[in-house]
Amino acid sequence: MRILLVEDDPQLGRATQIGLDQSGYAVDWVQSAESALTAARLHHYDCVLLDLGLPHMDGMQVLRALRGNGYAGAILIVTARDQVPDRIAGLDGGADDFIIKPFDLDELAARIRAASRRATGRTQELLTHGTLEIDTAARQVRNAGQPVPLTNKEYGILLMLVENRGRVLSREQLEETLYSWGEEVESNAIQVHIHHLRRKLGKELIRTVHAVGYTIDPAPAGPAP
């Protein structure tokens, strides 16, 4: 999952970026409204963490601009403003959640997961595909009941493919979600991660569509009762 963090406080912004990065998220951090709108226009983000007290332009204006420009991902307001009218304005303005500073990083991650579930139409943390189980809260994978250790990038690719079963995702789409600014991406990085996933989960799970990308086919329907 790739997150846009909009926070003008250098200490809090850096701490939040590091904490979420250690939890397996790709986080791009900007410190102004203008940079946030530019980043959202140029890149795909699954979630935006938006401070309200930004220089030059209030975060509510950024919220309205994002939704007005068609951004459909999760937006979580993270602010020191704790008055009820502010919460109502933020939620009515298009935010999916309203989080008061200071916050706990584990709770923030849980709220990100909850908002992302709603954005993708899921209702629970456990994803299943045949004998495969993905616990998105614990970021753990089991196959046929056995735990399968994955790196953060392998987990991210697997989650994207399972969430988009039946769709072909290009290398560029996978890279856009998995890597934040400043991360060096080798030209064959996705191919290497796919190779490792096939070795750990079986070569039949992920199908290569030549010159297009990768897909996991929908699970076959079970026998009729």
TrEMBL record:
Q: A Pfam family matched by this chain, by name? A: Response_reg
Q: Name one GO molecular function term.
A: transcription cis-regulatory region binding
- Which residues belong to any copy of the OmpR/PhoB-type domain? 124-218
Q: What is one term from the GO cellular component aspect held by the record? A: protein-DNA complex
Q: What is its main location?
A: cytoplasm
Where does the record say this protein resides?
Cytoplasm
Reading the lineage from the top rank, the first entry is Bacteria
> What ranges are recorded for DNA binding?
124-218
GO terms of biological process kind = regulation of DNA-templated transcription
Which keywords does this chain's UniProt record carry? Cytoplasm, DNA-binding, Phosphoprotein, Transcription, Transcription regulation, Two-component regulatory system
Task: Give the Response regulatory domain ranges.
Answer: 2-116
Query: Could you tell me which residues carry 4-aspartylphosphate?
Result: 51
Name of the protein in question: Response regulator transcription factor
